[in-house]
Amino acid sequence: MNRIIRYTYPRSASALFANRSPWTGLDSEIGRLFDSALSDVAAPAPRFPVDLYEDKENTYVRAELPGVNREAINLEMVDGSLTIAASRQEKAETVSYNRSVSIPESVQADKVTAAYENGVLTVTLPKQEQAKPRKITVAVN
Fold this sequence. Notes:
The protein is mainly beta. It has helices at 13-16, 26-39; strands at 50-54, 58-64, 73-78, 81-90, 93-102, 113-117, 120-126. The mean pLDDT is 79.
């Protein structure tokens, strides 16, 4: 015996998207598109999460690299880009990770520092003096 199931839909398209941004899911679709295009070329290195944040003095790049030895992490800054490369041993093979992040031009490249603790790499990028915000007082005439 066949069952008939009746679905009812909103009467207007605006009701269908009333509580949803039109951009929802766009980033995952673009990522899927690029992943499928790159799969024909070569398998990309696995990616790892990276957070960027800043305060008045510094810009920070925080990367989660659990299971990676400190000696297996390489950092390089070239032309406004910070590249983080790392590798770790998994079972019988070595897995390599690689991620590049654009950094602001206002960074003092010669004073960049990095720390690795509990599987989290934190790169501190000090801002140049002219890039730091300054409080300006207004004089009374």
